[in-house]
Amino acid sequence: METLYDVQQLLKRYGTYIYVGKRKWDIEMMGIELDSLYRAQILDIKSYQAAKVVLIKEHEHEVRKENSSQTGI
Predict the structure, then answer these.
(1) Which one, 4, 55, 61, 72, has least CB within 10 Å?
(2) Percent share of the chain, pLDDT over 90
């Protein structure tokens, strides 16, 4: 699992489609859904961890992008 698209496809296998309207919020909701699937023992630890790593990386990217647009850099 390497991209946000991969995480979306994983969630889609469990009937979860997320679109809030802002990429950062979508990523946060995907994280919440992954946590729920893992706690329900639907996702194995390997898939959960791989997806969380992707989400963390993407979320950090979005935060940096927001911050740079706010400071004008």
Answers:
(1) 72
(2) 92
Q: Which of 51, 61, 40 is nearest to 18 (CA)?
A: 51
Specify the CATH superfamily of domain 4-61: YqgQ-like (1.10.287.760)
Give alpha helix (H) positions in the chain: 4-13, 23-39, 45-71
Band of residue 47 on the pLDDT scale cut at 50, 70, 90: very high
Those residues whose C-beta lies under 8 Å from the C-beta of residue 34, and which sit 6 or more positions away, are 7, 11, 43, 48, 51, 52, 55
- Domain boundaries of the chain, sorted by first residue: 4-61
pLDDT of residue 72: 64
